[in-house]
Design a protein that fits this description.
Elements (H helix, E strand, L loop, with lengths): L1 H17 L2 H21 L2 H4 L3 H14 L5 H19 L6 H23 L8 H27 L7 H27 L1
Helix pairs in contact: 2-4, 2-5, 2-6, 4-5, 5-6, 6-7
Length: 187
């Protein structure tokens, strides 16, 4: 039993000595993105209490285990905090907060996907990280522009604006499902 524990400690020590900077920075980005999402989602009354330590731990979990269930857990905690702020504390729903929170959640997701691909001791060309983040920024920009445009559609007509937005959303969902089905059959 003692040999097994000694062997695990030695393996952890070896892994800690081999950590390279880029995967460590990606994981730090995951942590900071999750903390920023919590700060934006949760009401200030909750963040001032003892729950802040638990939220920091929840933000640390996806950074340590991006291949596991922890990124999903962090996203669900963030969404729960946003719902708590809106329903429990009466915070009005603002478009800027909703867009910023969705951008942080997407950034958390994509950084976890990148970290899941990178071993701790990987030597990574900085151009790879730059391209990954530029692509994520383009997705965020396109989503924000489309979101703002769709938020303005209901103002076009008295009662038909919401119907137009619903039909447009359904068409986009059907198009994405058809494209994914086509891509799966193409393999």
């Amino acid at each position: 039993m003692i040999d097994a524990v000694t062997e695990r400690v030695q393996a952890l020590r070896t892994a800690a000595n081999r950590i390279s900077l880029t995967p460590l920075l990606v994981r730090a980005g995951i942590f900071l993105t999750a903390v920023a999402g919590f700060l934006l989602a949760f009401p200030a009354e909750v963040l001032a209490g003892q729950q802040l330590g638990a939220l920091v731990l929840v933000a640390l979990l996806p950074a340590v285990g991006p291949r596991r269930v922890w990124p999903t857990f962090a996203v669900l905690v963030t969404v729960g905090g946003w719902l708590l702020a809106a329903d429990g504390y009466g915070r009005p729903i603002a478009l800027w907060r909703l867009l910023a929170l969705s951008a942080l959640l997407y950034l958390l997701h994509t950084l976890c996907a990148l970290a899941a691909l990178l071993p701790y001791d990987a030597v990574v060309d900085p151009e790879l990280i730059t391209r990954w983040l530029v692509r994520a920024g383009a997705v965020l920009l396109a989503a924000a522009v489309l979101g703002v445009l769709l938020m303005e559609v209901p103002d076009l007509g008295a009662g038909t604006g919401y119907q137009l937005a619903t039909v447009a959303g359904l068409l986009v969902a059907v198009g994405v499902a058809a494209m994914l089905g086509w891509l799966l059959r193409r393999r």
